[in-house]
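name: query_chain
kind: protein
chains: 1
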Amino acid sequence: QVQLVESGGGLVQAGGSLRLSCAASGRSFSTYAMGWFRQAPGKEREFVAAISWSGGGTYYAESVKGRFAVSRDNAKMTVYLQMNSLKPEDTAVYYCNAGMDTRTIVANVIGSWGQGTQVTVSS
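structure:
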């Protein structure tokens, strides 16, 4: 089982940037795809971005494509989400999780959800 702890959120003005981190524990981290998800108030959790186990493949939701970039460091067991050109509609709690590949992770995760990290974008 993969345990996950998100960090790096905060308050930023529209157009600004933030870098989120997700620290993982568990022997199989480097064999899993990893994904970022978010949940805005009153809405369901939604997929944001995913990266393959090797880091060679990525997949993004249309709403963040071209603005967000996901990366990973398997030696540090950490996944990152670089968020640029932030918009007020990006305001949400951001979570990470593990999955079998960058496509099935959209609907099927295999880790436990952590506390997430709050991102607030002011207009």
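note: Residues 12 and 121 are 5 Å apart (CA to CA).
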